[in-house]
Amino acid sequence: MISTSGLTLYGVIGHPIGHSLSPIMHNASFEACGIHATMQAYDIEPDSLKDALDSFVNLGFGGINVTIPHKQKIIPYLDFVDEEAGIVGAVNTVKFDGRKMRGYNTDTYGFLQTLEPLRNSVEGGRFVVLGSGGAASAVTFVLLRYFRTSQIVIASRKSSSARALVDHFKAFHNSRLATSSLDDPALARVIRDSTVVINATPVGMHPNTKSTVLPGVEFRPGQTAVDLVYHPLETEFLRTARLAGARTLSGLEMLLHQGARAFELWTGQTMDVAQMRKLLTEKLDQEGNNEVNGL
Ligand code: NAP
């Protein structure tokens, strides 16, 4: 065991990890709460995941955030996986409890908090989730468990992946889950008739800011478009929706709230979300063309 002079170490792991915003958010929160701790980003190649986890345990880490491509693959190494992470099939937060590793999914909480202020205007509507990876799974879980919906359409570039996600949630017995292929011409009409459209793909993320997962698809006033991508804060997907009069929400809200929940799990203390929103917005504005990705 390496002595760290009472300093508790935290990390965010991914591959690639880029200039992650998590250390900025958590280090500022540790300082604000008077906690002697620090977080750093670690680029961990998929084949090195187990070795990296062993090192974190040996070094007495307090916790880690986990991002692409480790969210699913980490599960077999953990001693405990909480109910929501187990259902979603992805872990984005690990708490080290002595030598035990406990896995959680705080993306679900992050997305719930993002949508909660709109509950009254979106409940009962049709939701379209674009993508079928880990984030799409967290979003679909939140919609199934916490919101009343008339239909949830999962649209993916491979309809087999969308079908696999629907099958994954069959225990919810929700006959209103449907699938589509992203290139199905009928999807444009489904989007126009929907209440909320959520981009859960990385399309539009810096530096490919001119890309959108739905080229040519029109939004309309009264709809809500949510992008899980937060760099840039206004993606092409959100810009198109805003210009058509739709309400837009960037991925920054989810990032903040998943971080706040992880912070609480690790430290038992509350993150000042408003303060962190200000800090990260400034950081994203400054970053401009620099690379920011991962959590
Ligand atoms: P993932 O597990 O790798 O899944 C990515 C999904 O996007 C897959 O369905 C993939 O389709 C699809 N996709 C990738 N490139 C595409 C393209 N060019 N056209 C159409 N579909 C494409 O990743 P994830 O964990 O779900 O993350 C997805 C995005 O959400 C990332 O940008 C991530 O940063 C963001 N996210 C944000 C937050 C937040 O706090 N704001 C939290 C979690 C995730 P295939 O299966 O066909 O490859």
Low-confidence stretches: none
Would you report the number of β strands? 12
Radius of gyration: 19 Å
Number of helices: 11
Anisotropy-based shape: globular
Indicate the mean pLDDT.
Answer: 94
List all distinct small molecules, including ions and cofactors, that are bound in this structure.
Answer: NADP nicotinamide-adenine-dinucleotide phosphate
Name the structural class.
Answer: alpha/beta
SSE ordering? EHEHEEHEEHHEHEHEHEEHEHH
Largest sheet: 6 strands, mixed
- Across the major sheet, the strand order is 2-1-3-5-6-4
Strand content: 15-25%
Helix content range of the residues, please? 25-40%
How far the N terminus sits from the C terminus, by CA atoms, comes to 28 Å
Question: Can you walk through the features of this model?
Answer:
The chain is an alpha/beta fold and 295 residues long. The protein has 11 helices and 12 strands. Helix 4 (107-115) crosses helix 6 (134-146) and helix 10 packs across helix 11. The chain is globular, with a radius of gyration of 19 Å. Residues 68, 107, 110, 131-136, 156-158, 161, 182, 200-203, 205, 213, 228-230, 251, 254-255, 258 line the site of NADP nicotinamide-adenine-dinucleotide phosphate (NAP).
Short description, anyone?
The chain is of the alpha/beta class and 295 residues long. The chain contains eleven helices and twelve strands.
Note the topology.
Blueprint: E1 8-14, H1 22-32, E2 37-43, H2 49-58, E3 63-66, E4 80-81, H3 83-88, E5 93-97, E6 100-104, H4 107-115, H5 119-122, E7 126-130, H6 134-146, E8 151-156, H7 159-168, E9 177-181, H8 187-192, E10 196-199, E11 224-227, H9 236-243, E12 247-249, H10 252-267, H11 273-287
Parallel strand pairs: 1-2, 1-3, 4-6, 7-8, 7-10, 8-9, 10-11, 11-12
Antiparallel strand pairs: 3-5, 5-6
Helix pairs in contact: 4-6, 4-10, 10-11
Bound molecules: NADP nicotinamide-adenine-dinucleotide phosphate.
